[in-house]
Amino acid sequence: MPISLTFDDGPHPDWTPDVLKALKRANVLATFFVVGELADRHSEIVREALADGHSIQPHCWSHAKSYRDMVSFEEIDADITRVLEVLDGLQVPRPRLWRPIGGDPHPVHSAPVAAKHDLQLTYWEVDVRDFDPDQTTEAMLDQLRTGKPQPGYDQPKPLTDNSAVLMHDGRLNTARLTAENTVALIGPLAELVRSRGWAFALM
């Protein structure tokens, strides 16, 4: 069964190119859930990801406010519409997925907004918590292999077949200053997946 690598909160002008290089070395395609204003600002990175065969899907416009905290259908609709307009302008194939900020959709309005734009709200099975500035590549690999708890994370999940793995190529709303742990994880994660006889697939 396939494993899907997914990245949120980019594109970042320094980190995303390093992630793309690591993915290319590992011969893995990934799904990037992008922040609209960053995709607009760093359009050349979006184009590079597309040229490499990766999937570009919407996350949010600015990551400044959770969808749960937005007050109306119209506010949420305006947010995702801006992202879709930017992606359309970059000639991104029409998105079909939408990952809400923090995996936390509005309990009433997100589903109708998704339906309006023919988008499927989507989440993940395994969170490696690479956004934590103290997180190490070794700890993330250990979790993926065994499900061993990490400090402050009581319910980690090990990697199983048909998992979507949540990673980050941006630093929005975190104290993180580098993506070295994420970049370093890609190669060993690819080896782990293939050693178990699994394959990778886009979401």
Can you give a write-up of this model?
With 203 residues, the protein is an alpha/beta fold. It has a single domain (2-200), classed as Glycoside hydrolase/deacetylase (TIM Barrel), CATH 3.20.20.370. The chain has helices spanning 15-26, 36-41, 43-51, 73-89, 110-116, 137-146, 180-195, and strands at residues 2-8, 30-35, 55-60, 97-98, 120-121, 126-127, 164-168, 199-200. The strands form two sheets. Strands 1, 2, 3, 6, 7 and 8 form a six-stranded parallel sheet that branches. The model has no long low-confidence stretch (mean pLDDT 94).
Q: What order do the helices and strands come in, and which of them pair?
A:
Layout: E1 2-8, H1 15-26, E2 30-35, H2 36-41, H3 43-51, E3 55-60, H4 73-89, E4 97-98, H5 110-116, E5 120-121, E6 126-127, H6 137-146, E7 164-168, H7 180-195, E8 199-200
Parallel strand pairs: 1-2, 1-7, 1-8, 2-3, 4-5, 6-7
Helix pairs in contact: 1-7, 4-5, 6-7
Mean pLDDT: 94
Label the overall shape. globular
CATH architecture verdict: Alpha-Beta Barrel
CATH-assigned fold name: TIM Barrel
The largest β sheet comes out as:
6 strands, parallel
User: Compute the gyration radius: what is it?
Assistant: 16 Å
CATH homology superfamily name: Glycoside hydrolase/deacetylase
Number of helices: 7
- Low-pLDDT ranges: none
- What is the N-to-C order of secondary-structure elements (H for helix, E for strand)? EHEHHEHEHEEHEHE
Supply the helix-strand structural class. alpha/beta
* Strand proportion: 15-25%
Helicity level: 25-40%
**Total domain units:** 1
End-to-end gap: 12 Å
What is the number of strand segments? 8
Please report the first level of CATH classification, the CATH class.
Alpha Beta
